[in-house]
């Protein structure tokens, strides 16, 4: 069976939430490794007391690889490193102010990819997008909407499901292979930190094993990394409610996920909830559920169980 045929068949069968509008990330939930990746790429600026840390070390490694830095990789944003940054910024058309913000990180990342990409594999010629099938644990790279190449992946466990819906890549970063592999691409999931990344546990590929992220073999994530830019569309297919298990998840205050978002939408339609549709079961959602249960003469608490799912038409 061809990639195209199997991809179309899976997309037609799986209940998905790919019609949800993309939302910006914000809540401190999701994959802990992604939160580490996001924290590493902070804004760096020259100061009397030199900034230190892993982000500076990563900056020095990347500048060294593209030929702009020849000093020690010591994790210190010292005058030599600042000088290298300014030279890089000037020669790539950026403001040569020595401040390493999002624009500098992105341009440096692109230059680094050009230098280090020795796979010899031609990339997609059209517009790139990604579809992840959480049921089959497959990631498909599309070119102008047509399947280009497919990879096996690991997705979230039942307790920590992968987000289902329509998202986009916010930023990318390179790593040394610890924790989350050699590459990371963060997604704009409203209720937490999630992304597509490599792994130092290749035996988990093809299973339900992650904190919600999409895990790839390092060689595979390194292959697609140059093709995937910030803004690339990523659709995760799956059933919001029967994710991996055969029963709906019991929801209570503090729960997060696509199923919570659908509960919020249904509560809003019924006039019980007017808060943000963000996939987080906070105070407002809990109060709405409690009022619904009270009106329908159910046990008065704020849990979403089979009775509430039935009342919501889910």
Low-confidence stretches: 10-28
Task: Find the CATH topology of the largest domain.
Answer: L,D-transpeptidase catalytic domain-like
CATH superfamily of the largest domain: L,D-transpeptidase catalytic domain-like
**Given the helix and strand composition, which structural class is it?**
alpha/beta
Portion of residues in helices? Answer: 25-40%
Query: How would you characterize the largest beta sheet?
Result: 8 strands, mixed
Oligomer: single chain
Element-level helix/strand string: HHHHHEEEEEEEEEHEHHH
Q: Please provide the count of β strands.
A: 10
Shape, per Cα inertia axes? elongated
Instruction: Note the gap between the termini.
Output: 34 Å
CATH classification class of the largest domain: Mainly Beta
Number of domains: 3
How large is the share of residues in beta strands?
15-25%
Structural overview:
The protein contains 9 helices and 10 strands. The protein has 314 residues and is an alpha/beta fold. It folds into 3 domains: 3-38 and 121-237, Beta Barrel (L,D-transpeptidase catalytic domain-like), CATH 2.40.440.10; 44-100, Muramoyl-pentapeptide Carboxypeptidase, domain 1; 258-311, Muramoyl-pentapeptide Carboxypeptidase, domain 1, CATH 1.10.101. The chain has an 8-stranded mixed β-sheet, with helices on both faces. It has a two-stranded parallel sheet with strand order 4-8. A hairpin with a 6-residue loop joins strand 6 (181-187) and strand 7 (194-197). Helix 3 (54-65) packs across helix 5 (102-116). The radius of gyration is 22 Å and the shape is elongated. 39% of the residues are buried. Mean pLDDT is 82; it is low at 10-28.
